[in-house]
Every structure is written in structure tokens, then in C-alpha cells.
Amino acid sequence: MNITGKALAQINDTLGKLPPERGGILVASPKGVIVEFCLDQKNKGSRDEYTPDHEGLTRALRLRTERGLELAGFAHSHPGVCCPKLSLQDRAYAREILENNPHLASIWMVVVDDNGVHPWLVSASGRTQKGDVRVVVGRPRR
To answer: What is the pTM of this model?
Structure first.
């Protein structure tokens, strides 16, 4: 997962510090570099589950697509250090996103826990694979 230092800091400064089961969207440049994390402002999550505010996140995404950015995925936090993998609900949500966005071949589903940031790439075919965090230095080209 290619991400700017600024976007990674946005994730760590929010999901890394808030109670678990919070989340938001990842937006990328046309080259696929994640340049921004947009925290779901409305949803506070519960102890066991993050339920996105679809309307608020859609508005946030629309503002970014007007600037030439695109949806790259979602990030959300899990409690403690027990769950760096995607849950069954996370995988179902990824499939739903891909079904509703047929122009996307895959999306990043990022889990944040006490041990850090864990990216998972989920493809439209249903394949899920663990990714690596690669911080991109400098400004991504459009």
C-alpha cells in the first residue's frame, strides 16, 4: 500500500488514539498513492463493531473526487492487539463496496490496532492478501 507520510499520520493521529471501532475512507491520487484519510465524524463505533456513516462518507468522498482523487479503501480500528486481520464483517463490507463500485478492481481494507497499521488488499474476485505499508516521499503526481 503506497501512502504519503501525511495520510499515515492522519490514520495514526485519529484511529491510533481513539477508542476502537472507529473508521473512515482512504482516498488516493490517480496513480494509486493514498494521500488522505477522512475520519468518519458521525459514527463513534461500539465496543465490538464499526458501522460507517455512509451519507457523511459519501459527501466527503464527493468533495475529494471533485479534486481528482478517488476511493482507495477504508481504515478502521480493532481493539488491542488481538485482531490485525479482517473479520468476516470486514470482508463482507469490502465485497459490498466493490459490488457498488464496479469500476474498482480492488480496495484497501486497513486495520489499525495497538501494534500498528495492517493493510489488506481485497480484490473484486474475492481474493484477500496482506499488504505492506510503503511511505511515499514527496508529492504524488496526478
So the answer is: 0.89
